[in-house]
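hey so u asked for the seq, here:
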Amino acid sequence: MLDLKKLISDFFQSVNVNQIDIYNEFSLQHELGIYLRAVLPTYKVQFERNVTFFAMDKRETIKKEIDISIFSEDKKEKYAVELKYPLNGQYPEQMYSFVKDIRFMEQLKELGFNKTAAVALVSDKPFYEGKHNSGIYRFFRDEKSVYGEVYKPTGQNNHYDFVVLSGKHDFEWVNLNQGRKFYIVEI
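ran it, structure tokens below
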């Protein structure tokens, strides 16, 4: 079974060593995919695959497409990776998107994926430190753990919009070049 967390960590190490230019979420997705294809020649690595491609039961998932799918030819081994690289502020909204990605990865694991991972790469300090450490901020700044009911932090109907995580997911912010940080939540 693949160690997704190690593969993704090794990719970020490669970004530092080889000075790979990651300038938006699209470039992150493609550079990681290229890297995975090189180190996993016996697996298929595909982008934006619909969940239904894997012919699992038809339970509803929070999202429909997987950023990066890694699978064996016979699909007996399958892995999923969701990526975020927000560049336009909106810190609480983006943090909520991080939580939704984690829930999506939980759902795919429940549907039979061997392992899944939610990855966030950030350039701005407010994602991991700041004055406000309550609400959604506490998960990413103080606790570095996401769990339970997480409510959408903004909007008129935010008390109706929430995600319920089935597990507790601890992570750490890891330094990357150019003042960036990332985390990997493997499920």
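The helical segments are 4-18, 25-39, 91-110, 136-143. The chain has a mean pLDDT of 94.
lmk if thats what u needed
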